[in-house]
Amino acid sequence: MSTSTTTTPSRWERFRDSYLWYSFKRDRTAQLCLAVFACLVVAAFCAPLLAPTDPYDLRHIDILDSELPPFWIDGFDERYTLGTDAQGRDLWSIILYGTRVSLLIGFGAVILQALIGVTFGLMAGYLGGRIDAFLMRLADIQLSFSTLMVAIVVGAVVKSTLGSAFYSEYAVVMLILIIGLAEWPQYARTVRASVLAERGKEYVDAARVMGLRSKRIMFRHVLPNTLSPIFVISTVQIANAIISEAALSFLGLGMPETHPSLGSLIKAGFDYIQSGSWWITLIPGAVLVVLVLSINLLGDWLRDVMNPRLYKG
Amino acid sequence: MALLEVNHLDVRFALRQGEVRALRDVNFTLERGERLGIVGESGAGKSVAAFSLLNLIAKPGFIAGGEIRFDGQALTKMSERGLRKIRGNRISMIFQDPMMTLNPVLSIGEQMIECLKAHRRISRREARSIALDRLKQVQIPSPEKRLDQYPHELSGGMRQRIIIAIALLLDPDIIVADEPTTALDVTIQAEIMALLLSLCETHNVALILITHDLGVVSQVTQRMLVMYAGRVIEQGPTREIINDPQHPYTQGLLNALPQMATPGEKLNQIRGSMPSLNALPSGCAFHPRCDFTHRSDGTARPACVEQVPEFVISGQCRVACHMVAEMLEDRRMKEEAQ
Amino acid sequence: MIAFLIKRLMHAVLVMFVISVLAFAIQDNLGDPVQQMVGQSVPESERAALRERLGLNDPFLVQYGRFAKNALQGDFGYSYFYREPALEVIARHLPATLELVFAATLLIVLLSVPIGVYSAIKPRSPISRFFMGVSIIGISIPVFLTAIVLIQIFAIGINVTLFPQDISWGAWLNATLSTQGSMPSFGRGHDLVHVVGHWDTNLASWDGIRHLVLPAISLASIMLPLFIRLIRAEMMEVMQSEYVKYARAKGISMRRVYFVHALKNTMLPVITVGGVQIGTMVAYTILTETVFQWPGMGLMFLDAINRADIPLIVTYLMVVGVIFVVTNTVVDLIYGLVNPTVKLTGKPA
């Protein structure tokens, strides 16, 4: 017990003391990205407080207000800063709510991926043999089909099986499950690779010689040492999950228009782009890009800082 | 005029934390056909010295000062183009690990021929026959076959033979060998070393041998440098240094050789380890590990802590040590008094 | 070589088996052919008889065996919507998708190698920094959004009035930043040249190529930055290797060091990743074709999902599976030819 509680925080603290924090303090891009990302997260989760209208409440929506332009274009309405969408919903409010949905699915899916992937990766790397061969072959096949393809197929099949109405009602859960199941191989591979690297080291032998059980060795001793690669890919995976969700929603396999995410807002707006109302699709699009970009840049920075191959003393 | 002359060579690495001085004030000369050893622990700057000769130090390293003259030309002032004509042609190199040195996706023949074609206007066929000739000289079995093979098909010893063959391709004036046998099996180390030595003799090639193995240096070289923390601390004829080392560090190195130990007793180690280049001790960099500077109360002598030692001449050697300087001064005073 | 091919073939068969079981399970659970064949009015007893005759009451394995046997003979059943053999429908849509993928791949290969290599050789130059910045933005924009933005700029046109129109530079800026929007953004156009069978090509006429431009750029837009970054990272790592240092010490020209010694080693992992990305590319065709109404397999698949055209969905999955298996085998072969340490016996030496 004492070994595990001292190894985990000491490794973290070593990162903070030596390089992670130091590098963050000097890197303007990383600071800006974290600030932007934090703003978006806070704004999204405070949507009910910040949004002037409740876009889910049909009583506030007037179809006569539809396709009003944002404030810098002639003909805008003072009530709607960023204009309105085709149904007359305030774009600013619906984007806040939509970002919340996107983030919720993104984080939920990544947590699920990590749970499945880390467990399988630890099993494959630590137990080896047939289990390893089976899990990695499964991961290979799934990856060679690409995660988005798997998500689309699973989404299509689930939607056909359960029916559109049911699927729409539980879309958030469905999307978390689909994206979570589609992307676990990324985690499993990363974790397996670092487990294999760690397994050869003395402390694992020492733990085994001391008579600890393999489950305990895996979770208490090996896992803490694979944390930094997990942390690095998690940022990229959140960005990927948000993009995947947007893609599924864009294909009509995701969030319904009554309860839109950023992806379904873009899809809904796309139908009106030919009529000149570009803002309905491009403003949510811009928000999506800023969100994903800030996460990707943070991920890049993290990888540069934490990658042991790049960071040598 | 010496074939190679290195004066006050100063190499630095521009790191995030600031500049680190990897080499300070390195001076030596090399005559045609001479064999020079550079000795020191890992991190002493031996390899940096070797790579800086042809300005091959990887970024963020750079030559910050000093001069390298080869055959009358200042390499330190030469353009990349000019240097390229010398690299592999008049000065060739042998790297440490033959497993990493050859490009895994190019055939042996390709890697030999490209070197010839880079420096001579000859046809592929001529290049191939020269390559074959050199492979025969390094006594590789079935040399014809090797030209079409890839590095992974050959053992470490064979690969190092091929690298020696490449080094000899263009009849260079100097071969710089950076720990040429360290990565090999102990059983073939002597074989490869003997091959390198005999080829250098028959072709009259000067050799700069970088190693941490004092035994090899004493057998192969005529003169040697001992390096510590980026500085030369003792240099002179090999025999003289091996027989009568002046610097406490050189003495320590020689005492640490297994042959010097009494059976049944512990090997004589130098205590502590080499300081990191960005945290060098003040004064003489060796003083925290030096057995001689410490007096009965455990403190080091002030001169060793405060001042970087200058070179003093002792016999045919140059030594950078306050203790040796004082000793020589004492002796001179005594001689004068007599 | 033969051993390698046999090993690959066995792997391919295994993968196809897994895919076919999955596809069949989907069909078995979702499709009710009886429902599709007869109307609502047919009595239950007659349906049961039909079900028995079609073998729908047989055990799962027997039914799968029949499915697999038919599939091997190219019989994947009838599309509910098109009322013709599903494979026939796919064959009609396949050329459009392949041409789109071909054009996008061409863009990716032609651009990613030079840009990746340049930014690895000169990582600090402003041009490299620019490309790295653009590529991370490129990765962050979903394919369908790139497509929409391209449509807005080049097909619909934008009219910039941001700068004061009454000052000359303002008017000039407005005019420069505004676009005409004359590029086609819908379908393949009408000027297609018939090649053979179902294959009408976009590549043989000016109008056809114009129709191909925006979809191809969109499809390439995520892969391109991905490959630029991958090639750059791998190349920078290779440049640190001992053999590149040694090549320099031999005095050979930097051009040869970069393009023979470094690039060949850089391409090995790039080829592997390229094989994996083929799957992603197919997934992105669904998105790109949806935005541009490009009449390929992707758009057909999405329509099939919306129409619950189960046989067509299942056939699509099987065909895509075959495409993956074939391309992955080809990629492995290329890898084996480039990398001498892989003997084509399948065992790394």
UniProtKB/TrEMBL annotation, chain A:
<feature type="transmembrane region" description="Helical">
    <location>
        <begin position="278"/>
        <end position="299"/>
    </location>
</feature>
<keyword id="KW-1003">Cell membrane</keyword>
<feature type="domain" description="ABC transmembrane type-1">
    <location>
        <begin position="99"/>
        <end position="299"/>
    </location>
</feature>
<feature type="transmembrane region" description="Helical">
    <location>
        <begin position="101"/>
        <end position="126"/>
    </location>
</feature>
<feature type="transmembrane region" description="Helical">
    <location>
        <begin position="164"/>
        <end position="182"/>
    </location>
</feature>
<dbReference type="Pfam" id="PF00528">
    <property type="entry name" value="BPD_transp_1"/>
</dbReference>
<dbReference type="InterPro" id="IPR050366">
    <property type="entry name" value="BP-dependent_transpt_permease"/>
</dbReference>
<comment type="similarity">
    <text>Belongs to the binding-protein-dependent transport system permease family.</text>
</comment>
<keyword id="KW-1133">Transmembrane helix</keyword>
<dbReference type="InterPro" id="IPR025966">
    <property type="entry name" value="OppC_N"/>
</dbReference>
<feature type="transmembrane region" description="Helical">
    <location>
        <begin position="138"/>
        <end position="158"/>
    </location>
</feature>
<feature type="transmembrane region" description="Helical">
    <location>
        <begin position="32"/>
        <end position="51"/>
    </location>
</feature>
<keyword id="KW-0813">Transport</keyword>
<feature type="transmembrane region" description="Helical">
    <location>
        <begin position="222"/>
        <end position="243"/>
    </location>
</feature>
<protein>
    <submittedName>
        <fullName>ABC transporter permease</fullName>
    </submittedName>
</protein>
UniProtKB/TrEMBL annotation, chain B:
<dbReference type="InterPro" id="IPR013563">
    <property type="entry name" value="Oligopep_ABC_C"/>
</dbReference>
<keyword id="KW-0472">Membrane</keyword>
<dbReference type="InterPro" id="IPR017871">
    <property type="entry name" value="ABC_transporter-like_CS"/>
</dbReference>
<dbReference type="InterPro" id="IPR027417">
    <property type="entry name" value="P-loop_NTPase"/>
</dbReference>
<dbReference type="InterPro" id="IPR003439">
    <property type="entry name" value="ABC_transporter-like_ATP-bd"/>
</dbReference>
<keyword id="KW-0547">Nucleotide-binding</keyword>
<dbReference type="InterPro" id="IPR050388">
    <property type="entry name" value="ABC_Ni/Peptide_Import"/>
</dbReference>
<comment type="similarity">
    <text>Belongs to the ABC transporter superfamily.</text>
</comment>
<dbReference type="InterPro" id="IPR003593">
    <property type="entry name" value="AAA+_ATPase"/>
</dbReference>
<keyword id="KW-0067">ATP-binding</keyword>
<feature type="domain" description="ABC transporter">
    <location>
        <begin position="6"/>
        <end position="254"/>
    </location>
</feature>
<protein>
    <recommendedName>
        <fullName>ABC-type dipeptide transporter</fullName>
        <ecNumber>7.4.2.9</ecNumber>
    </recommendedName>
</protein>
<dbReference type="GO" id="GO:0005524">
    <property type="term" value="F:ATP binding"/>
</dbReference>
<dbReference type="Pfam" id="PF00005">
    <property type="entry name" value="ABC_tran"/>
</dbReference>
<dbReference type="Pfam" id="PF08352">
    <property type="entry name" value="oligo_HPY"/>
</dbReference>
From TrEMBL, chain C:
<feature type="transmembrane region" description="Helical">
    <location>
        <begin position="130"/>
        <end position="158"/>
    </location>
</feature>
<feature type="transmembrane region" description="Helical">
    <location>
        <begin position="212"/>
        <end position="231"/>
    </location>
</feature>
<feature type="transmembrane region" description="Helical">
    <location>
        <begin position="100"/>
        <end position="118"/>
    </location>
</feature>
<keyword id="KW-0813">Transport</keyword>
<dbReference type="InterPro" id="IPR045621">
    <property type="entry name" value="BPD_transp_1_N"/>
</dbReference>
<keyword id="KW-0812">Transmembrane</keyword>
<dbReference type="InterPro" id="IPR035906">
    <property type="entry name" value="MetI-like_sf"/>
</dbReference>
<keyword id="KW-1133">Transmembrane helix</keyword>
<dbReference type="Pfam" id="PF19300">
    <property type="entry name" value="BPD_transp_1_N"/>
</dbReference>
<dbReference type="Pfam" id="PF00528">
    <property type="entry name" value="BPD_transp_1"/>
</dbReference>
<dbReference type="InterPro" id="IPR000515">
    <property type="entry name" value="MetI-like"/>
</dbReference>
<feature type="transmembrane region" description="Helical">
    <location>
        <begin position="314"/>
        <end position="338"/>
    </location>
</feature>
<keyword id="KW-0472">Membrane</keyword>
<protein>
    <submittedName>
        <fullName>ABC transporter permease</fullName>
    </submittedName>
</protein>
<feature type="transmembrane region" description="Helical">
    <location>
        <begin position="9"/>
        <end position="27"/>
    </location>
</feature>
